C-alpha cells in the first residue's frame, strides 16, 4: 500500500465517519415520532424504553457512498460489469429493505427467512459462493445455509446495546487484514469495509449503553448479509498460500473469526429448542442474556465481547500473515472451543 493509497483511504474513512455522524445525529434529533420500537415488544428483556430503531439506515447509505466513491475513481463500467458485485448490491439492498419493512410493519418470521434464502440464491446465481468441495450443488447449498445463518445470527445478537455493532466491527477488521496481507487494497470491497467500520464506530457512540438509538432489523439484516459476503470472500475462499485450500483450515479460519455470532446462535437454538415461543420470537436464551443473568451489566458484557473479538482478530492476522500458520490454526481451534464451551456452561449456571 503506497502513500497515495493511505492518504485516500484515511480521507475516505474520516469522511465516512463525519457523514455517518451527520446522518445519525440528524436522525436522532428529527425522528422522535418515526422508527420507534417499544423494547417490551423486542427480544431483549433488559430495557423498557421506547427508542428509534432505524439506526441501520446510516450503514446502507455509507455502503452506497462507498460504492459511489470507488466508482468515481475506478470507472462505473468496470465495477458494474462485475456480475458478482451486482449480486452483492442486489442482495444487500433486498436485505436492508425487508429489514426496514419489518421495523415498520412487523412482518412474519417466515417472510424474513424467505428473504434470507433469496439473498443467498442471488449470491450463488451471480457467482459469489463458498468453494467447499468439488460438487457445485453442495457448494451452493452450503452458501445459502451460511447466508441464512449469519443474517439470523446478527439479528439475534442485536438484543442488547452495542453487541451486534462490536462483533461486526471486528469481523470487518479481520476482512481488512486479509486484503492488506494479500495486497488487494484496490478492491471495492476494501473500500466498503472501511466505510462500514466508520459507520459502525459512529453508530456505537449512539448505541453504547444506555443507547439512544437502535439499528433495527434494517441494520441487522443488512449487516448480516454483508458479513456473510465477507466470510465467503475473505475466509471460506481465502487464497493464502499458508492456508491453501484445506477444508479443515477453511473451517478453522472462518470459525475463529465468526466464533461469537455462531456460538450465540447455536446456544440460543439449543436452549430454546422445544420452548414456546421459539428462539426466533421472544426467547431470551442468548449468550449475552445469560452473561447479564450472572450479574454483568450491559457495558461489561460489551467489554467481554470486545476482548474475545480482539483475540479472534489477532488469530486471523497470525493465520493470514503466514508465520507459523499451523500453530496459529491449532491455537485458533482451541480458542474457539474454549469460547463455545465457556459460554455454553454459563447458560447452565446462570439464573434468569
What would your notes on this structure say?
This protein is mainly α and 352 residues long. It has one domain (3-349). Helices cover 72% and strands 2% of the residues. It contains 14 helices and two strands, in the order αββααααααααααααα. It has helices spanning 3-30, 57-74, 76-79, 83-105, 109-125, 136-157, 163-181, 188-207, 216-236, 247-257, 259-272, 287-293, 298-321, 325-349, and strands at residues 36-38, 50-52. Strands 1-2 form a two-stranded antiparallel sheet. Helix 6 packs across helix 9 (216-236) and helix 11 packs parallel to helix 14 (325-349). The protein is globular. The N and C termini lie far apart (50 Å). Residues 37-49 and 278-282 have low confidence and may be disordered.
Helix-strand blueprint:
Elements lengths: L2 H28 L5 E3 L11 E3 L4 H18 L1 H4 L3 H23 L3 H17 L10 H22 L5 H19 L6 H20 L8 H21 L10 H11 L1 H14 L14 H7 L4 H24 L3 H25 L3
Antiparallel strand pairs: 1-2
- What count of domains describes the coordinates? 1
Mean pLDDT: 84
- Alpha plus pi helix count: 14
Largest sheet: 2 strands, antiparallel
Helix share bin: over 70%
